[in-house]
């Protein structure tokens, strides 16, 4: 009898232990039924939330409900992958990618209402479709019955949601008149399709009746486009309320309010949200900068074999919205406290999180970084260093970019990187860690400059990495190492890791290119890493990002000419290819480096404002899909006529800031700068 009691006691303890483990993993809070809810959202089993320590759970899962949300936009679903088309296979892969990364589909309306009710540790994602083409929703006739094409977006979503009921299948279709009728035989079904979408929990949004760019229409015409579409939907679903609107081709009307609220022919509309065309992740509805009438989206497409979804999810990993599992509470780390919006009928829980990699405050500082290049020789003089600090205090500057490894291949500090020690590349005359600590104490943003493929020291000490002419002679006296060597990649990445360990806020790679000139185009680079020059440079950045992680800020200096070049200038730099792996790109847009005829000027050097303005516009267009921000290098030196002083330097700064870019760096090879040339 005593033995039987012991056995049953052990069984009970074992069951309790299993229950505790399951609970701690959030499994009890994410038990699902076999099918998603009618509205397409995941079904999670109801539990008694009264006795749960939600605050403890929030801290354990790293909840951040002020983090950003990926709102994805698709256009065509079709057979050929392209800039505007996603194949059914790729779309399935996208859903799997989201699912594997612990995202859950939520309705746009729930997002707008701040009702994101998902399990702890999960993140919301929203899928939208523009233009209502047939690939989004196709009906096929089989044995006298209409069935959903399994390769249409609706078919894929429903099937994936059935397989993964904890993911759901909800999406928002921003439609035009006679939706899903790009194939003539499908037009007869447009009303039935809208009814089926409503029945299955998908959402319907307004995208104008004729897919019109509203920027060119009168207020009356804008209201007619929107109201007519709403009336059209009600022909199929009389009581359906459209709550959100998607702007066509970034066509913004004047006044803007006409897309939010209006009336035409007795049909009135009022939208709770407006989504823009694309370009970045969206603010949490609880974030102070959330604007329901200017919601950003991310376009999903294939970029030469790389999914834009994958690169964007990597980019936002450190700032993603993570749920605490309790829809009645908003949880976030204390570093985000200043970014909470107002007037939420929810409890607020703020917790401490150690070693938060990228705080919003530091991100704002990076986004507004204005600074100067300082050589390690200049920084080694205490008097000059103090002058730089004073210059920051007396101007609008807030940033110092310090050479870690410069064009000589040497470093001013004693490096702990093994290869740097072996080739005697480091010099012990600069207390870098002390300087960086000084910058941090003063609230000054710090950037470590690492020159990558121009490295005379590495080339001389490891000739196997040196770039040579076809006849075997060193190219340019042996100052270049090959971008096609993984050892060279790893060496510079190890230096970058060291820079972060020393406390730098950011690392900037320079000379991240192949050498220029006729001889360089025919030079020998080895064959360890194959591919075109563009592929090699892009792959290096992708590899560096994977090694360093997205919890570090990374930038690169590039030629200014690549903004208008039709190719890569045979140096491997293409802004749109490099951008997905960078936080910031710093094009060297020095007016003195442009030739006669560039931007329509015989002497571009005499037109600093115009040169910077035009180049910034071009670079913004190249980078708009990537998430990479601009921080140009501006000319603070004289080369040719006219001499550069206050007027020329201020003209460049103003041209940058007038393009909405609040970040720039000044370059002078000798690190000589003057207050009167910088202050407004």
How would you sum up this structure, described in words?
With 680 residues, the protein is an alpha/beta fold. The chain folds into two domains: 23-48 and 68-315, TIM Barrel; 365-677, Glycosidases (TIM Barrel, Alpha-Beta Barrel), CATH 3.20.20. It is 31% helix and 16% strand. Strands 25-24-23-22-21-20-19-27-26 form a nine-stranded parallel β-sheet. Strand 24 (584-588), helix 19 and strand 25 form a beta-alpha-beta unit. The longest helix has 23 residues, at 2-24. The radius of gyration is 29 Å and the shape is globular. Mean pLDDT is 93; it is low at 1-33. Pfam families: DUF4015 (PF13200), Polysacc_deac_1 (PF01522). InterPro entries: DUF4015 (IPR025275), GH (IPR017853), Glyco_hydro/deAcase_b/a-brl (IPR011330), NODB_dom (IPR002509), Polysacch_Deacetylase (IPR051398). Residues 125-241 form the NodB homology domain.
Indicate the low-confidence ranges by residue numbers. Answer: 1-33
Briefly note the CATH topology name of the largest domain. Answer: TIM Barrel
Radius of gyration: 29 Å
Structural class: alpha/beta
Strand order of the largest sheet: 25-24-23-22-21-20-19-27-26
InterPro entries: DUF4015, GH, Glyco_hydro/deAcase_b/a-brl, NODB_dom, Polysacch_Deacetylase
GO molecular function: hydrolase activity, acting on carbon-nitrogen (but not peptide) bonds
Keywords: Hydrolase, Signal
Protein name: Glycoside hydrolase
The gist of it:
The chain is an alpha/beta fold. The protein contains 20 helices and 27 strands.
Could you name the key traits of this structure?
680 residues, 31% helix, TIM Barrel, alpha/beta, disordered N terminus, 9-stranded parallel sheet
């Amino acid at each position: 009898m005593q033995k039987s009691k012991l056995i049953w006691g052990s069984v009970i303890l074992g069951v309790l232990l299993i229950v505790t483990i399951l609970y701690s993993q959030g499994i009890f809070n994410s038990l699902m039924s076999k099918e998603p809810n009618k509205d397409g959202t995941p079904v999670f089993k109801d539990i008694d939330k009264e006795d749960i320590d939600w605050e403890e759970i929030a801290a354990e899962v790293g909840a951040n409900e002020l983090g950003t949300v990926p709102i994805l936009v698709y256009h065509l679903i079709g057979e050929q992958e392209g800039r505007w088309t996603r194949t059914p296979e790729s779309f399935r892969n996208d859903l799997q990618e989201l699912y594997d990364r612990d995202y859950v589909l939520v309705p746009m309306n729930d997002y707008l209402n701040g009702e994101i009710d998902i399990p702890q540790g999960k993140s919301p994602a929203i899928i939208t479709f523009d233009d209502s083409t047939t690939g989004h929703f196709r009906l096929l006739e089989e044995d006298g019955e209409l069935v959903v094409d399994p390769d249409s977006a609706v078919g894929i979503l429903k099937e994936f949601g059935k397989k993964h009921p904890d993911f759901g299948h909800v999406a928002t279709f921003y439609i035009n008149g006679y939706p899903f009728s790009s194939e003539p035989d499908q037009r007869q079904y447009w009303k039935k399709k809208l009814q089926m979408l409503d029945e299955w929990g998908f959402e319907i949004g307004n995208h104008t009746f004729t897919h019109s760019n509203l920027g060119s229409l009168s207020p009356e015409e804008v209201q007619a486009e929107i109201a007519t579409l709403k009336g059209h939907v009600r022909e199929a679903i009389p009581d359906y309320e459209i709550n959100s609107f998607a702007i066509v081709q970034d066509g913004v009307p004047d006044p803007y309010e006409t897309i939010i609220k209006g009336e035409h022919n007795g049909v009135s509309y009022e939208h709770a949200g407006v989504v823009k065309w694309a370009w970045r992740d969206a603010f949490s509805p609880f974030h102070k900068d959330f604007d329901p009438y200017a919601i950003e989206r991310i376009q999903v497409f294939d970029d030469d074999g790389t999914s834009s979804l994958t690169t964007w999810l990597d980019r936002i990993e450190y700032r993603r919205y993570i749920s605490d599992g309790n829809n009645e509470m908003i949880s976030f780390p204390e570093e985000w406290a200043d970014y909470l919006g107002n007037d939420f009928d929810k409890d607020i829980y703020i917790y401490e999180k150690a070693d938060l990699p990228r705080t919003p405050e530091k991100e704002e500082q990076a986004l507004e970084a204005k600074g100067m290049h300082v050589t390690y020789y200049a920084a080694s003089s205490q008097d000059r260093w103090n002058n730089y600090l004073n210059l920051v205090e007396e101007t609008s500057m807030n940033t110092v970019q310090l050479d870690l490894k410069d064009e000589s291949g040497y470093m001013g500090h004693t490096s702990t990187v093994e290869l740097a020690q072996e080739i005697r590349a480091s010099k012990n005359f600069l207390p870098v860690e002390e300087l960086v600590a000084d910058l941090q104490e003063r609230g000054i943003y710090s950037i470590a400059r690492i020159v990558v493929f121009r490295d005379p020291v590495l080339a001389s000490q490891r000739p196997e990495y040196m770039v040579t002419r076809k006849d075997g002679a060193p190219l340019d006296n042996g100052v270049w190492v090959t971008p096609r060597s993984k050892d060279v990649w790893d060496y510079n990445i190890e230096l970058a890791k060291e820079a972060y360990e020393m406390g730098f806020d950011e690392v900037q790679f320079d000379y991240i290119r192949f050498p220029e000139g006729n001889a360089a185009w025919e030079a020998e680079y080895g064959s360890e890493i194959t591919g075109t020059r563009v592929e090699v440079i892009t792959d290096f950045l992708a590899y560096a990002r994977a090694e360093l992680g997205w919890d570090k800020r990374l930038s690169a200096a590039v030629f200014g000419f690549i903004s208008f070049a039709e190719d890569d200038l045979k140096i491997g730099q293409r802004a749109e290819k490099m951008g997905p792996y960078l936080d910031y790109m710093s094009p060297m847009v020095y007016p003195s480096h442009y030739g006669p005829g560039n931007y329509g000027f015989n002497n571009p050097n005499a037109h600093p404002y115009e040169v910077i303005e035009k180049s910034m516009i071009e670079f913004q267009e190249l980078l708009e899909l990537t998430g990479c921000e601009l921080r140009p290098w501006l000319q603070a030196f004289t080369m040719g006529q006219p001499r550069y002083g206050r007027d020329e330097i201020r003209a460049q700064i103003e041209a940058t800031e007038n393009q909405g870019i609040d970040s720039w760096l000044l370059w002078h090879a000798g690190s000589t700068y003057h207050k009167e040339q910088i202050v407004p």
